[in-house]
Every structure is written in C-alpha cells, then in structure tokens.
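Hello forum,

I keep getting stuck at the same step: I have a sequence, I want structure tokens, and every attempt I make locally crashes halfway through. Rather than fight my setup again tonight, could one of you with a working pipeline run this one for me? It's a single chain of 167 residues.
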Amino acid sequence: MLPICRIMPVAFVTLLICGCGDSEVAVLQEQYLLAEEPAGAQVVSRIRSALQADDAPASIDVVLAGRIYAGKDSEPWSAGKCAFILTDFAGHNGDSEHDPYECPFCSESIEDYRVFVNFGENGAAAEVDAREVFNVKERQKVTLAGTARLDEAGDVLIEGSGLFIPQ
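Reply #2:
Ran it on my machine without issues. Output:
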C-alpha cells in the first residue's frame, strides 16, 4: 500500500490537469442534452396566457423553440450560471428570422416573446456557464423542454429539463 503522502500529490496534479468543472459539465450535458427534438413547440404568448388563466396551475410543462437572444443591447447569458434568455422567433406570417426586440409592434410587449431559462436543481441554475455546458452562442436556435412558471414581475421562467440543439 502506498503512503498517503505519495498519493496526494498525484491526486492534486490530476485535478489541476483535468479540472474539477469538466466532470460537472459532463454530468450536465448527460442530464440535459437531447438527441431528438421534442415535439409540440409552443409560443411564449400562449405559455404566458396559460399561466395567467384564472384556473392556471402554478407551473406547466412546455416545449419552446427559440433563439438564445436578449436584443442587440443586452447579453442573453447569466455569466457563470447555466442560464440564458430565450426569445421566441415565431414572427409575423411565419417569419423565422423575426426579431421582436426590433419590431415596433412586438417590442411593446417583449414579455410575450422572451423567457428566462435555467438548468439546475430546485429552480436554481447550476454554477457552470451555459455556453460551456451546451457549446451554444448568441442567436443560436434551440428547442427547450421544461417546466414554466411566472415570477412576481410576470416574467416566464423555465426550469429546463432538456435542450435540443439542431446541427
């Protein structure tokens, strides 16, 4: 049996080389990345309406296709967190390149096009940047599965249960 004083330096060097965060990234990828796109994508305004109905439950399961985007003047990322802003890209007459932040009509009610997304436990985002976990970038199209609820300000929050990234 090797003495502990000989094992510890090797373990320490291994952690430095491999990094502690790599294993957490792998766990999050395994837990959340989807191989197939979930069916039944909804638009944010319908999700919001369902949550605001008089007989609405506190949360609902949803599928949403959108773009990681928060407008040209804002970052969609929550640095160091597995969280981002997802914007509905379903535009007027089916235009998938629609930008509700720039549209004079949609920008008046941007909350009907934007959701706040996190991946983690009990409503809290994991402490690893979403860009690192999912290898995504701003304006990238994704399809999200998760549980939606409204916060105190009326914004839609989605705790992600899966993310599909088209190739």
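The CA atoms of residues 144 and 163 lie 5 Å apart. If your local run keeps crashing, start a new thread with the error log.
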